[in-house]
Amino acid sequence: MQAVKIAIKTAVSAREPEAMSSPAGRGSGVGSGLGPGPGSGPALNAVAAGGGSAAATVTAVQPRASAPDLSRFRQSLEIFLGENAITLLSMLSLVALWYLGSFVLPPSIMPAPHVVADILWGLMQAETIWSDVSITLGRIAAAFSIAMVVSLIIGFAMGISKVAERFLDVWVICLLTMPSLVLILTIYMIAGLNDRAAVLGAAVPVIPILSINIWQGVKGVDYKLIDMAKAYHASRGQIIRSIIAPQIAPIIVASARFGLGLAWKMVLFVELLGRSDGIGYRIEFYYQMFNMGAVLAHALLFLFIMLFLEVVVLGLIERRLFRWRPAQRSL
Q: Which residues contact residue 6 at a Cβ distance below 8 angstroms, ignoring those fewer than 6 apart?
């Protein structure tokens, strides 16, 4: 009799996970006396009739595993595939347009993409092209740094002070309207044909454009929020960190990405005009040799490098800085 009681307790404990996981299972079973439940049946009857050996026939019912919710994963996958499908279609359209141009124009003027790829692969086996790439990247970094620092100073000064705005507005407009070629040649004439002049010649044409962007961004700060923060006795650091910085940061990041693209174009231009090394010089050299395949190969390699810096590096920084935005959060 004692063995029967032990077997009944074992059967009841085996049914408890199912009774807890399903509301329909509550109230059924031995304890309730409302009839046979999902866990009763031959095993429990054998317990009542067969004595101690019936304990071996009791099988525990495992709790049911809940079905995973795949709706969010499916939605994210559809968005990812949709965005990449558009990007892939855009890239294929560019390659198709290039092939169309190679069919229409002579090969000496517009070689096909696979021909340029073969030339680029051959150039990448030598050390000369990597030396030129490193030299050009160093000049881009220096020119971009100078342009960004000066633009930040001018833009913030013009956005905060009315006196600075009236004084510097004439300078910015004059530099903006003056052709870049004139600025570069003037700097070469003053500083000579050296790396310092090349970096300054690439940085100066970029400064007025970035200054205007930053200036307008600083002017767009909502000063009502600053007044409200002062009313709540917020410190200067809290105002800058929580109110001013979130409003200005998008303009600064956008100006940085825009300035990097302008800087590398200006560096190639100054190398083409007055330097004996770098990607710009190589492009001008092969152009003089009427070798358009090598010209396009050098331009394509540097385009890939700048796309990596622009999309991957700066894009990653932008996503990490603006994770607080609802549009930047992953679905």
A: 55
Show the tokens assigned to 100.
């169309």
Contact 143, 187 (CB under 8 A): no
Per-domain residue ranges for the chain? 2-57, 70-104, 117-328
Tokens of 314: 């700066």
The Cα 175–Cα 163 span in angstroms is 19
Mean pLDDT within 303-327? 75
Does the pLDDT at position 243 exceed 50?
A: yes
Residues 194-198, mean pLDDT to the nearest whole number: 88
What are the tens digits of pLDDT across the range 203-231? Answer: 999 999 999 988 888 888 777 888 888 88
Q: Write out the CATH class of domain 117-328.
A: mainly alpha
CA 264 to each of CA 140, 144, 148, 205: distance values in angstroms, whole numbers, following the listed order: 6, 8, 13, 12
Q: Which two tokens stand for residue 282?
A: 């190589």
pLDDT tens figures, 17-68: 444 444 444 444 444 444 444 444 444 444 444 444 444 444 444 545 444 5
User: Can you give the three-state secondary structure of the chain, one letter per residue?
Assistant: CHHHHHHHHHHHHHHHHHHHHCHHHCCCCCCCCCCCCCCCCHHHHHHHHHHHHHHHHCCCCCCCCCCCCCHHHHHHHHHHHHHHHHHHHHHHHHHHHHHHHHHHCCCCCCCCHHHHHHHHHHHHCCCHHHHHHHHHHHHHHHHHHHHHHHHHHHHHHHHHCHHHHHHHHHHHHHHHHCCHHHHHHHHHHHHCCCHHHHHHHHHHHHHHHHHHHHHHHHHCCCHHHHHHHHHCCCCHHHHHHHHHHHHHHHHHHHHHHHHHHHHHHHHHHHHHHHCCCCHHHHHHHHHHCCCHHHHHHHHHHHHHHHHHHHHHHHHHHHHHHCCCCHHHCCC
pLDDT at 13: 52
